[in-house]
Design goal:
Blueprint (H helix, E strand, L loop, with lengths): L18 H10 L6 H4 L10 H13 L4 H13 L3 H14 L4 H13 L3 H14 L4 H13 L3 H13 L5 H13 L3 H14 L5 H12 L3 H14 L4 H13 L3 H14 L4 H10 L1
Helix pairs in contact: 1-16, 3-4, 4-5, 4-6, 5-6, 6-7, 6-8, 7-8, 8-9, 8-10, 9-10, 10-11, 10-12, 11-12, 12-13, 13-14, 14-15, 14-16, 15-16
InterPro entries: TPR-like_helical_dom_sf (IPR011990), TPR_2 (IPR013105), TPR_rpt (IPR019734), Ycf3 (IPR050498)
Keywords: Repeat, Signal, TPR repeat
GO biological process, one term: receptor-mediated virion attachment to host cell
């Protein structure tokens, strides 16, 4: 996961480790990303130049159809072209002021661009138009969680789940909140549901591994960290967490190797740097 922001939780209350290991593992948990994480389960080919060209051709044939702009804006977003995406969502909303999906999509782009107030306004508008739109609750919940409004975030993820969402993010993010509160049984259940909905996503495995470790289930934790690495070899947190298991088992050579990989992937990731110093 190419993390663009680091969020620290208190995921491991009551977990009997040395102070140094506890500090490192707490920092290794509850991380989220920017665009890469949001689009984790979306085919990046949908944002390719070839696909953009075909979508542009559709818009040229029917320039008054707001759906065309919404679809192309989503493709631009997947491809990291955020200003182009913003322009398309603006056009979609101009053509249809009640296009709740476009408001939610534009909110996501505003988040990535750092325009948090504009993002919140768009999520609110999307929900105002359609109070049953799960994606808007999930997006707004992420916005709240990153702003430290944990209860508001929990309420939004809960609402999406009550709407029978099939979006793994609702369960994953609610699991992160449970984890931060030390409610690891509930966290493990949510991460497991997220995995069932998005089996190719590394983050729920990494999150569940931390909660397994917090409850003393080292074997399942190790298995989850390994799976997270298998699914996303660029996940520095998962490498650091795998290294911690090796360290706890006294295998300093393998621990050092995994910590080095975590540092290589993210040179500023302090838990990996601290871990490497301990085992070197």
């Amino acid at each position: 996961m190419n993390a663009t922001s680091v969020e620290r939780g208190t995921a491991l209350r009551g977990f009997a480790l040395t102070a140094a290991l506890l500090s490192g593992l707490m920092l290794a948990g509850c991380q989220t990303s920017g665009p890469a994480g949001e689009f984790n389960n979306i085919d990046k080919a949908q944002g390719s130049s070839e696909n953009i060209s075909s979508l542009s051709a559709v818009i040229q044939r029917n320039p008054q159809d707001p759906e065309g702009y919404n679809v192309r804006g989503s493709a631009y977003g997947r491809g990291g072209q955020y200003q182009a995406a913003l322009k398309d969502f603006n056009q979609a909303i101009q053509l249809n002021p009640n296009f709740y999906q476009a408001y939610s999509n534009r909110a996501l782009i505003q988040r990535f661009l750092g325009n948090q107030e504009a993002a919140l306004a768009d999520y609110n508008r999307s929900i105002q138009i359609n109070g049953n739109y799960d994606a808007a609750y999930i997006g707004r919940g992420n916005l709240y969680r990153k702003a430290g409004r944990t209860q508001d975030a929990f309420n939004d993820f809960q609402k999406a789940i009550q709407l029978d969402t099939t979006d793994a993010r609702a369960y994953h993010n609610r699991g992160l909140i449970y984890q931060s509160q030390g409610q690891h049984k509930f966290a493990i259940e949510d991460f497991s549901t997220a995995i069932s909905l998005a089996p190719d996503a590394a983050e729920p495995y990494n999150g569940r591994g931390l909660s397994y470790l917090a409850t003393g289930d080292e074997d399942n934790a190790f298995s989850d960290f390994n799976m997270a690495i298998k699914l996303d070899g660029q996940n520095a947190e998962a490498w650091a967490n795998q290294a911690l298991i090796y360290e706890r088992r006294g295998d300093k050579a393998k621990a050092a190797k995994a910590y080095r990989e975590a540092v290589r992937l993210n040179p500023s990731y302090q838990p990996a740097k601290d871990g490497l110093a301990r085992v070197s």
